[in-house]
Design brief:
This protein is an alpha+beta fold. The chain has 3 helices and 17 strands. The chain is elongated and about 60 Å long.
């Protein structure tokens, strides 16, 4: 079913890709779409000649205000977006373009479709050479300023290495971290230590944290961010 392996996802074979996109409208599949402006939820309506998927906006809650999609798709110019959706027991994503046409969103189906790892807590290793920043700015409610680096990153948490041994981070510690991945805007996230810290040969601490209080919109932003980072790394190190 798949080809071109990577640690976190596989490219879906063209035949399987066609079957999936034919099935989405029949199942009225819910699709998360993210671009630089916002994250919205869509419902698949129709697949046209296997090249375009037509979708309609679907609010997260009954009282949600419809966003001004005309600003996102100004002058009906296609916008670069990332899609993710569940199909059967797997989660899929695609980086593609979409445009607004008569109130409906038309998605280009030409780019590759990828399937994520089955394990829920999929992570991507962060190489030393990948530009990023992470620092702890609060520890048990007290302001701190502790810089480190990310060992790996996932939509629900990350593992980080702190270049000092004090304070000693232990399981259940409550933190606030600020992370920045490549050129993107920094994210400030409430977190909790989930794995007791271990020491490296250099005497640094390595421990895992879980991000707390992520609502549905933020969860999908984090998932999209994870997919974008993985694709960047895959393109760089597997070209």
């Amino acid at each position: 079913m798949t080809k071109r392996n990577s640690p976190m996802f596989n490219q879906v074979h063209l035949i399987d890709k066609k079957i999936i996109f034919r099935s989405l409208p029949m199942r009225k599949t819910k699709i998360m779409m993210k671009n630089d402006e916002l994250v919205v939820r869509l419902e698949a309506l129709a697949s046209s000649s296997e090249k375009i998927l037509e979708c309609q906006y679907l609010p997260f809650t009954p009282n949600e205000t419809l966003p001004d999609l005309s600003q996102v798709f100004e002058n009906n110019i296609s916008s670069l977006v990332v899609l993710n959706f569940s199909f059967n027991e797997d989660r899929y994503f695609m980086q593609t373009t979409a445009s607004l046409d008569s109130g409906k969103i038309s998605v280009d189906l030409a780019p590759d479709l990828f399937v994520l790892q089955r394990r829920r807590s999929a992570r991507v290793d962060i190489p030393f050479s990948y530009p990023h920043q992470i620092r702890v700015i609060e520890h048990h409610g007290k302001p701190v300023f502790i810089e480190g680096r990310m060992v790996d990153f996932g939509a629900g948490g990350c593992r980080l290495e702190i270049l000092q041994m004090n304070p000693q981070f232990t399981e259940a510690d409550e933190l606030v971290v600020v992370l920045r991945l490549s050129h993107r805007n920094p994210l400030t996230l409430k977190s909790q230590v989930r794995h007791a810290s271990s020491k490296t040969s250099q005497g640094n601490q390595i421990f895992g944290v879980q991000f707390l209080g992520l609502g549905p919109i933020m969860e999908n932003k984090m998932m999209s961010l994870l997919m974008e980072v993985q694709k960047e790394l895959f393109a760089k190190f597997n070209a």
